[in-house]
From TrEMBL, chain A:
Lineage: Bacteria, Bacillati, Bacillota, Bacilli, Bacillales
GO biological process: polyamine transport
Source species of the chain: Paenibacillus curdlanolyticus YK9
Compartments where located: Periplasm
Official protein name in the record: Extracellular solute-binding protein family 1
InterPro entries, A to Z: SBP, Sperm_putr-bd
Automatic annotation (TrEMBL), chain B:
Chief location: membrane
Annotated GO biological process: transmembrane transport
Protein species of origin: Paenibacillus curdlanolyticus YK9
Name listed for the protein in its UniProt record: Binding-protein-dependent transport systems inner membrane component
Membrane topology annotation: Multi-pass membrane protein
Length: 357, 277
C-alpha cells in the first residue's frame, strides 16, 4: 500500500516535471500563448522558405501540421481539442464544413491582397461570395503516362485506358470520387451523377478495366510511377507535376471527355485561437510574389493572376496545368452529394476493387 | 483482534491494487467495445436502426468476409509452417537466446517502414527481379499479387508465432523424446505422437496471435496488394475515414469482435478437455 502510494507520487512528480520541461522548452523557443500560428495543411503543400519568411515578417512562430485526406482533417477539427488557425480543405469539404458550422466567416477587408485572385476562382458554388474560404491552389484529375513504355503512344482520353495494350499497366489513386468520376466521364455522364442506372453502368464499365489495373494505391503512386513501376496512372495534376519533376520522360493529359476541377482554399476553422495571425498569413500567401514562389515549389496551379504573370512562361503557358478555356468548359467541380450518396459511391468503388481478373 | 485488523488491512490494500487494473479494463476494454456496439446501431444519418446488420449480410460484405478469412487462414498456415521448424531448430542451437533475439529484432522496427521496404525489394526494378533476371528467369510481377501479400504478412507476423511455439518446446521435458525413441518410435512418429501434442498449446497461442490481427489487416492490403485484396479491415478504415459511415464501420468491427471471441472460446475449450482427459 505504502509502496503503491510512493509509486504514484513518483509517477506524478515525473509527469509534472516533464510537462514543465516541455513548457519551458517551448517558451524558450518562442512557442507559447498568443504568438504562435498553427497551420493545418496537406503534406508538402507549401514552400518551407515562405514559412520562415512569414515568421520573420510577422514575429509569429508557425506550427505546421499536415493531413492526407479531407475526411481525416474534418474528423480532427470536428472532434475539437485542436488549435488549428488556418486549414486548406478542398471544395466539397468546405461546403460540408460550412454546413456543420466548423468554419469562421472571413472578413475581406483584412485581406487587401485578395484583389490579385482571378475572378474565375471567386464566388463559386461551393462558397458563394467566398464568405468562408480564400483560393489557395486549383487543379485537375488526369492521366500521367510514360510514352517511352508505350512506344510513343499519346493518350488523350479516358477510354484509352481500356485499350488491351495497357494490360496490367495502370495505377489508380485510391479515391472513390476520382475513380467513379472517370468511370462516369468515360461514359459521358457527369461526375456528380446520382442516377442509379448511370452509376451501375459506370461500375460495370470500371469492372471491365480490371485486367489493365495493376494496383489501386495512395500517395505512394508518385514514387511508383516515377520509378516506372507502371506506364500509366490516374492522378491529381499537382502530383503529376511532382512526378514529372522526378522523371521527365512522363507526360500528363487532362482527358478530352472532361474531368474534375478541384480547388483547395484557405479557411479559418472554428478551433482558431490566433485569428489576427490567420489573416496575416492568408494575406501573406496572397501576395503575388509569394504565391508565385509557392506555385513554383508545389507545382499546382495558382489562382492568383498577378502571380501567374510572374511565373516563367514554361509554367504559366503549360496547357496541361493551365488548360485552355475550351477544355476548362468540360471540367466539373465535385458537388457535395451528401453522406448517403458518398457512401453509395464508396460501396460501388469497393465492388469495383473486389472484382477479380 | 490484532490479527483481524491485519486481515482487513490486507483486504483493503488488495482492493487498492485492483483500482488501476479495473480502471484500465473499464476505460480501454469495456468502454470502447460498448461504444462500438452503440455506434453500430445508428445509420449514416444518425437514426437508430438495425439496418447496418442487415446490410452486412449482403453479397458484397459476405464475399469480403470470406476473402478476409481465406487470407487470414493462408497467412496463419504459412506462418506456422515456417515458424514451427524454426522454433524447433532454435531450441537445439547453442546460443538460443541470441538467435531468438535476432528473430524478434525486426519486430522492433515500425511496421510501415518494413512494408515500404518491400515496395522497393519486390518492385519491377527491385532486388528480387534483378536476381531473377540474372538467373535467367526474367522479370516477374511480384508486387501487387496474392503472393507478395501473403509473403509480407507472414514476414511481419512470424515472431508472434515463433515465440509461443518456442516457449512450448522449451517447456517440454526432453527425456520424453528419449523415451519415445527408446520405445522404437521413428522420428516422424515421435514428432506426431509426442512433440506436437505436447506443444499444441503454443501452436494454438501462436495461431490466435496471428489469425486475429490478420483478419483486420489494412495498410498492407493497399501498399503490397495494391487493393487487390480487400479485407474487413480495409472496409472499416474506409467507413471511418472516407465515407464517415461510422455505423457500418462499427458493425463490421462488432462482427470481428464476435468472431475473435468465438475463436478464443473454441481454442480455449479444447485445452480444458485435454487437461481433464
Amino acid at each position: 500500500m505504502k509502496q503503491l502510494a510512493r509509486m504514484f507520487v513518483v509517477v506524478f512528480v515525473v509527469a509534472f516535471g516533464l510537462m514543465y520541461g516541455v513548457h519551458a522548452l517551448n517558451s524558450s523557443e518562442g512557442y507559447g500563448g498568443s504568438n504562435t500560428l498553427t497551420i493545418y495543411n496537406w503534406g508538402d503543400y507549401i514552400d518551407p522558405d515562405l514559412i520562415a519568411e512569414f515568421e520573420k515578417e510577422s514575429g509569429l512562430k508557425v506550427i505546421y501540421q499536415t493531413f492526407d485526406s479531407n475526411e481525416a482533417m474534418m474528423t480532427k477539427i470536428e472532434q475539437g481539442g485542436t488549435t488549428f488557425d488556418v486549414s486548406v480543405p478542398s471544395e466539397y469539404a468546405i461546403s460540408k464544413m460550412k454546413e456543420e458550422g466548423l468554419l469562421l466567416p472571413i472578413d475581406h477587408s483584412k485581406l487587401p491582397n485578395l484583389k490579385h485572385i482571378d475572378s474565375r476562382f471567386l464566388d463559386l458554388s461551393f462558397d458563394p461570395g467566398n464568405a468562408y474560404s480564400i483560393p489557395y491552389f486549383w487543379g485537375t484529375v488526369g492521366i500521367i503516362y510514360n510514352p517511352d513504355l508505350l512506344d510513343g503512344w499519346q493518350i488523350t482520353s479516358w477510354n484509352d485506358l481500356w485499350d488491351p495494350r495497357l494490360r496490367n499497366q495502370i495505377l489508380l489513386v485510391d479515391g472513390a470520387r476520382e475513380v467513379m468520376g472517370f468511370g462516369l466521364n468515360s461514359l459521358h455522364f457527369s461526375l456528380n451523377d446520382t442516377n442509379e442506372d448511370h452509376l451501375q453502368e459506370a461500375k460495370r464499365k470500371l469492372q471491365t478495366l480490371t485486367p489493365n489495373v495493376k494496383a489501386i494505391v495512395g500517395d505512394e503512386i508518385k514514387m511508383l510511377i516515377a520509378n516506372e513501376e507502371a506506364a500509366v496512372g490516374v492522378v491529381w495534376s499537382g502530383d503529376a507535376s511532382e512526378i514529372m519533376d522526378e522523371n521527365d520522360k512522363l507526360d500528363y493529359v487532362v482527358p478530352e471527355e472532361g474531368s474534375n476541377l478541384w480547388f483547395d482554399n484557405m479557411v479559418i476553422p472554428k478551433t482558431a485561437r490566433n485569428i489576427e495571425g490567420a489573416y496575416a498569413f492568408m494575406n501573406f500567401m496572397l501576395d503575388p510574389e509569394h504565391a508565385a514562389r509557392n506555385a513554383e515549389y508545389v507545382g499546382y496551379s495558382t489562382p492568383n493572376k498577378d502571380a501567374l504573370a510572374l511565373l516563367p512562361e514554361e509554367i504559366a503557358g503549360d496547357e496541361r496545368f493551365y488548360p485552355s478555356p475550351e477544355l476548362t468548359e468540360k471540367l466539373e467541380v465535385y458537388r457535395n452529394l451528401g453522406k448517403r450518396m458518398l457512401a453509395h459511391y464508396n460501396e460501388l468503388f469497393l465492388e469495383f476493387k473486389m472484382h477479380r481478373k | 483482534m490484532p490479527s483481524r485488523t491485519r486481515l482487513r488491512m490486507s483486504d483493503k490494500s488488495r482492493n487498492w491494487y485492483l483500482i488501476p487494473y479495473t480502471a484500465w479494463i473499464v476505460l480501454f476494454v469495456v468502454a470502447p467495445i460498448a461504444l462500438v456496439v452503440y455506434y453500430s446501431l445508428f445509420d449514416i444519418e444518425g437514426k437508430f436502426t438495425f439496418s447496418n446488420y442487415a446490410h452486412f449480410f449482403t453479397p458484397v460484405y459476405l464475399r469480403m468476409t470470406l476473402s478476409s478469412f481465406w487470407y487470414a487462414f493462408l497467412i496463419t498456415a504459412f506462418s506456422l509452417l515456417v515458424a514451427y521448424p524454426a522454433a524447433y531448430l532454435l531450441t537445439r542451437t547453442k546460443h538460443k537466446q541470441l538467435w531468438l533475439l535476432l528473430i524478434i529484432l525486426p519486430s522492433w522496427i515500425n511496421l510501415l517502414l518494413k512494408t515500404y521496404a518491400f515496395l522497393g525489394i519486390f518492385g519491377t526494378y527491385g532486388f528480387v527481379n534483378a536476381v531473377l533476371e540474372t538467373v535467367g528467369i526474367g522479370k516477374q510481377q511480384i508486387l501487387f499479387t496474392d503472393f507478395s501479400f501473403v509473403f509480407v504478412s507472414v514476414y511481419i507476423f512470424i515472431p508472434f508465432m515463433i515465440l509461443p511455439v518456442f516457449n512450448a518446446l522449451e517447456k517440454m521435458n526432453p527425456s520424453l523424446i528419449d523415451a519415445a525413441r527408446d520405445l522404437g518410435a521413428s522420428s516422424w512418429t515421435t514428432f506426431r505422437r509426442v512433440i506436437f501434442p505436447l506443444t499444441i498449446s503454443g501452436v494454438k497461442a501462436g495461431c490466435q496471435a496471428v489469425f486475429i490481427p490478420a483478419l483486420s489487416l489494412f495498410m498492407i492490403t493497399r501498399l503490397i496488394a495494391g487493393n487487390r485484396v480487400i479485407t474487413l479491415g480495409t472496409a472499416i478504415e474506409q467507413h471511418f475515414l472516407v465515407t464517415q459511415d461510422w455505423g457500418m464501420g462499427a458493425t463490421i468491427a462488432v462482427f470481428l469482435v464476435v468472431v475473435m471471441a468465438l475463436i478464443m472460446v473454441l481454442t480455449g475449450n479444447r485445452k480444458k478437455r485435454e487437461v481433464q482427459g
